[in-house]
Every structure is written in structure tokens, then in C-alpha cells.
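Section 5: illustrative case.
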């Protein structure tokens, strides 16, 4: 199972899951499968949390997407699915949220799933936000918001949710990652051997040249850069300090996408992150590099 889903399931088992979770990235099928797994974990009736979801109890068995074989229905598993290729309207959202004003029927809590959260109109998003913030009636309520990217959701919703990235829609080509990782490794070695700021700019430039940055909300370029930096870190010949700094850079790259929405170019973000994390590896101290304007 996807590592992100495993970690989220662990939070659900221990009762520490955020009330609102954004499941984003990967494919629509993967997002739906992750939502089912988490909903079953939250509502399964097994006493021992580690055994949830059991997939056998009266709750687990009835939690399903409509159209998945026989019609199954659970009154505490509430789905908001878009009918047409239009935005999910405020009216439909409010109707659907009415169930949040009553206690759960059978299970220990309720799970609300928005199947295509990227289609929520601004007003629908506000209605949802209000429901997330309202205290429940004693039984836990969970909201799972599914979208291709977390950046498809309003900032107010994002700030109140745990974003779980399920992986890129298409896995980056392993040959491309390996080639880029080798270039990064060579660049880091040159830096440690006495190279200066220009080597940092060169490294950032290589990462920038590989990614597709046309859509500011797309995560693909960041995933590719992070995968390559991680592979460079884990190369057996890499010294421990370089490995540590490269792994930190890979982590930072995975959460860099929102900067694009503030109008900062991918090149500038990459230069900033590469400098911050890798400048200490240089043989002699260097200032943060600046491009001539
Ligand atoms: Zn169960």
C-alpha cells in the first residue's frame, strides 16, 4: 500500500487524524481507494485499532463507491459526487452537509467525502469550511477532500486540513531520475572540492531545465526534482554531511509548489532552496548567489 495512505491510516487508528484531510495527487482511482481505506478504518467496529479496517464487519462491508458492483450503502459514509462537468454548487453542498447536523446512525462517527473537491464553487467551499469548523454532536466527523492537487482548493480550506500527497499522477521516468541524480552528485562533489556560487546556480539550473513548469499548480516538476536529489543523496559514495543536506533539500522541494502561486518563478525558488541547503557544503564560505540583473 502507498506509504502516505499507511501513515494516514495509522493516524486514523490512533484517533489523531485531522477532522479534514485532503487526499491529492496520483490518479482518481487511487484517491478513491485511499478514501475508502481511511473511511473503513475510521468506522470499522473492531475493538483493537490495529485490526481496523477488518473488511468484514457490517460497517467495512457497506462502505463503497456507488457503482462498485452491488449497491452498498452506509448511512454514515456520505459522498458528494459531482453530476455534471460543472462546479459543485453551494446548494448541492448545503443539502449534503445537512447530515452533519445529526448524530451518526450506526457507526461511531461520520465520514464525509467530496469526490472532486477541485470543482467546489467558492460559495460551496465556504459552506464546507463552516461545517468543518462547527463542533459536531459528540460523534467524530471526518471530511475527506479528493483533488488532483491540494492547490486546487481554496487557501482557507487548505489551512484547516491535513494534505496527504498520494504521489504523482504519472511516476517520473526512472532513467531521467538516475541521469539527473548523477549530475547533482557530480555538482555537489565539485562544490565540496572548491567550487563556488556558480556551481550552486548551475545545480538549480539543471533541476529547472528538467521539470515542466507551465502549470503553476502541477507537482510533477517538484516530484522529479525531489526524486533526483533523493537518489543523489542515497548514492553509496556520498559523504554523510552531503547526504543529510541533500535529503533535507528533497523534503523542501516536495513542499515548494505553493510558492509558485505567489508569482515566484520555479527558477528562483530552486535557486533559493539549493543555496540554502547546499551552500554549507562548499569548500569555502560563499554568499547566497545572485544572478546579474
Ligand atoms: Zn470492519
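Designed sequence:
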Amino acid at each position: 500500500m502507498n506509504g502516505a495512505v499507511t501513515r494516514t491510516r495509522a493516524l486514523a487508528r490512533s484517533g489523531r487524524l485531522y477532522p479534514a484531510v485532503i487526499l491529492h495527487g496520483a490518479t482518481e482511482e487511487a484517491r478513491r481507494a485511499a478514501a475508502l481505506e481511511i473511511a473503513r478504518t475510521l468506522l470499522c467496529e473492531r475493538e483493537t485499532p490495529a485490526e481496523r479496517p477488518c473488511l468484514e464487519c457490517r460497517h467495512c462491508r457497506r462502505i463503497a463507491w456507488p457503482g462498485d458492483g452491488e449497491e452498498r450503502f452506509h448511512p454514515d459514509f456520505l459522498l458528494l459526487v459531482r453530476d455534471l462537468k460543472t462546479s459543485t454548487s453551494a446548494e448541492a453542498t448545503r443539502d449534503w452537509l445537512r447530515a452533519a447536523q445529526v448524530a451518526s446512525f450506526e457507526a461511531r462517527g461520520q465520514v464525509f467525502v467530496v469526490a472532486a473537491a477541485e470543482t467546489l464553487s467558492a460559495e460551496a467551499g465556504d459552506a464546507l469550511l463552516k461545517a468543518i469548523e462547527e463542533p459536531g454532536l459528540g460523534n467524530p466527523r471526518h471530511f475527506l477532500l479528493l483533488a488532483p492537487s491540494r492547490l486546487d482548493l481554496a487557501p482557507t480550506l487548505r489551512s484547516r486540513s491535513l494534505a496527504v500527497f498520494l504521489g504523482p499522477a504519472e511516476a517520473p521516468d526512472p532513467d531521467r531520475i538516475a541521469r539527473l541524480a548523477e549530475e547533482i552528485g557530480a555538482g555537489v562533489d565539485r562544490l565540496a572540492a572548491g567550487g563556488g556560487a556558480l556551481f550552486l546556480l548551475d545545480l538549480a539550473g539543471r533541476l529547472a531545465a528538467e521539470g515542466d513548469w507551465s502549470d503553476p499548480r502541477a507537482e510533477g516538476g517538484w516530484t522529479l526534482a525531489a526524486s533526483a536529489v533523493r537518489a543523489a543523496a542515497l548514492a553509496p559514495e556520498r559523504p554523510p554531511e552531503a547526504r543529510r543536506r541533500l535529503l533535507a533539500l528533497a523534503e523542501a522541494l516536495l513542499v515548494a509548489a505553493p510558492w509558485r502561486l505567489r508569482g515566484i518563478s520555479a527558477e528562483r525558488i530552486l535557486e533559493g532552496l539549493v543555496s540554502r541547503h547546499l551552500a554549507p557544503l562548499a569548500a569555502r564560505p560563499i554568499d547566497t548567489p545572485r544572478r546579474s540583473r
